[in-house]
Design a protein that fits this description.
Blueprint: H1 2-19, H2 29-44
Helix pairs in contact: 1-2
């Protein structure tokens, strides 16, 4: 889920860069880049995973 959020943030940052949009202050396309990288690092670190029993535990069927 965090990887999807990172992709959305990267897309918004790219649009702001291409359209030369500034939100004022120091919050620009670089801030979106850093926020996207933060979300990707959290995703790679395992934050927000689906189950507590290990990776892929939610995919297995119960009998």
């Amino acid at each position: 889920m965090l990887a999807i959020a990172a992709a959305i943030v990267f897309g918004i940052g790219l649009l702001f860069e291409l359209l030369d949009v500034s939100l004022g202050g120091d919050f620009g396309s670089t801030a979106f880049l850093l926020l996207g990288l933060l979300l990707l690092s959290l995703h790679q670190g395992g934050v927000g995973t689906a189950g507590l029993r290990g990776s892929g535990a939610w995919r297995r069927s119960r009998r």
